[in-house]
User: Fold this.
Amino acid sequence: MDFDFAAREHLQVPTESHASRGSHTVLVYGAYGLTGRFVVTELIRRGLTPVLAGRSADGLAALAELHPDLHVRRAGADDPESLDLALVGVDAVINCAGPFLDTAMLVAEAALRSKVSYLDIAAEQPSTTSLFSDLDARAGTAGDGRLAGRGLDRDRDGSRGMAPDRWHPDDRDPQRRTAS
Assistant:
């Protein structure tokens, strides 16, 4: 269960069968934490394919026992190469690993390099402010990645939730997005 991401041959890439079923692959960084487990369960319920990821080999191993059909990728937020490799073949990443002042910028940078959408559950204003001030313009010009500090607080409409039903990881065209 202890993957060496310096070696590409150890990387588990989602199979073609996922794509042929029309599901989308979402890396959940910090998947073994309380909120990460909730996010994994919710993604499965919505028909998406989570990839379990994070720093702790023990945490990932325990969660993989509950979800033996899901891929597992170990990556450190402070290890850009491991993050880049963990993001191979995914459509989006949801960062559930705090503290977000330590992880958000690093995981979001990797998402931009990999041209995948980034979402986090942070309700930490300094972290979210930093993401938008430092990366939002780059995300917009990259054309592929989107940034969102979603948090698990109340949405504008008063509902609770991590991601609206209308969020779709391959909906990258601003002209096609459903208005909030």
The chain has one domain: 22-149. The longest strand covers residues 49-54. Residues 22-149 form a domain with the Rossmann fold fold (CATH 3.40.50.720).
